[in-house]
């Protein structure tokens, strides 16, 4: 039993076979999926998918790439979705100084306003952070006052940044990219994350596991991330599945009960 805590089933990549993808996930023992909004349209589609499928929950958010084109009205609209019953988080939101699709100033402005939205609603954050560690920590500590909870999705930082995130109480999430041949440094980071803070995700359609590289990823593949964590940590697969499932249920307050695997 696993939970895919971050994917984008609303993307057009899944338009041809979305229901088949969901069926495969269910058949593979994925007990829940959090579909993460990354734009206004994506957030709307995300909520719709969650409302149509009992095992799917939605996160509402606007990706930093969109920051240059977001209006204040968008933020107001987004805040209006917070009370929808299947909405369990605000994300993905954050900073991306690797691609810099939008200006840093606009990224920071958008991130701060969505952070406030999440805080007012008392919802956890799903944070996208690439090469923006200093500004990320500054905003989380000084603007949010360190009192937010959430997850650093698709973690790509170093040991220092990891320690800061753990110190702030964040969960750390890994995708199937930990299976990549050249991901040795990332696997070293996995070793340092306490199991009670670790989450698993696919970020599908992106980051298909090693044996499927270049192909579309999908939620059932989250088990490859779980297998890799089990290998790195020297734990049984079932143990990794149980703990990460419990972590996801706890962080996102999912109304699910994990069946004991033993
Ligand atoms: Ni994502």
What can be said about this structure in brief?
The chain is 40% helix and 17% strand. The chain contains 9 helices and 8 strands.
Defining key terms:
8 strands; globular; 17% strand; 8-stranded parallel sheet; alpha/beta; 262 residues; binds nickel (II) ion
What's the helix and strand layout?
Blueprint (H helix, E strand, L loop, with lengths): L1 E6 L10 H10 L2 E7 L3 H13 L3 E5 L11 H8 L7 E10 L7 H18 L3 E6 L2 H11 L6 E3 L6 H9 L3 E4 L9 H9 L5 E3 L21 H12 L3 H15 L11
Parallel strand pairs: 1-2, 2-3, 3-4, 4-5, 5-6, 6-7, 7-8
Helix pairs in contact: 8-9
Structural class by helix and strand composition: alpha/beta
What is the N-to-C order of secondary-structure elements (H for helix, E for strand)? EHEHEHEHEHEHEHEHH
Beta content:
15-25%
Distance between the termini: 12 Å
- The helical percent reads 40-55%
Number of E strands: 8
Shape: globular
Give start-end ranges of low-pLDDT stretches.
Answer: none
Average pLDDT:
94
- Order the strands across the largest sheet as they lie in space: 1-2-3-4-5-6-7-8
Our Rg estimate from Cα atoms comes to 17 Å
* Total count of helical runs of at least 4 residues: 9
Ligand inventory: nickel (II) ion
Please outline the major beta sheet: 8 strands, parallel
């Amino acid at each position: 039993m696993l939970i895919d805590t971050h994917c984008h089933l609303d993307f057009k990549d899944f338009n041809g076979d979305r229901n088949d993808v969901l069926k495969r996930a269910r058949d593979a023992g994925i007990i829940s999926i959090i579909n993460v909004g990354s734009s206004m349209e994506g957030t709307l589609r995300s909520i719709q998918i969650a409302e149509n499928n009992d095992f799917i929950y939605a996160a509402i958010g606007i990706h930093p790439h969109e920051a240059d084109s977001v209006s204040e009205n968008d933020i107001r609209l987004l805040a209006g979705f917070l009370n929808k019953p299947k909405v369990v988080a605000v994300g993905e939101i954050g900073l991306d100084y690797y691609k810099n699709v939008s200006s840093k100033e606009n990224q920071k402005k958008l991130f701060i306003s969505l952070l406030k939205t999440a805080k007012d609603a008392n919802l956890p954050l799903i944070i996208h952070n690439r090469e923006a560690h200093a500004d990320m920590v500054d905003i989380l500590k000084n603007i949010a006052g360190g009192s937010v909870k959430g997850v650093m999705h698709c973690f790509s930082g170093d040991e220092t940044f990891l320690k800061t995130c753990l110190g702030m109480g964040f969960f750390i999430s890994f995708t199937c990219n930990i299976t990549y041949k050249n991901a040795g440094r990332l696997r070293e980071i996995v070793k340092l994350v306490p199991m009670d803070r670790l989450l698993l995700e696919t970020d599908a359609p992106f980051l298909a596991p090693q044996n499927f590289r270049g192909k579309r990823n999908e939620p059932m593949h989250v088990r490859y991330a779980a297998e890799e964590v089990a290998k790195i940590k020297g734990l049984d697969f079932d143990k990794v599945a149980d703990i990460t499932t419990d972590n996801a249920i706890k962080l996102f307050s999912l109304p699910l009960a994990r069946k004991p695997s033993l």
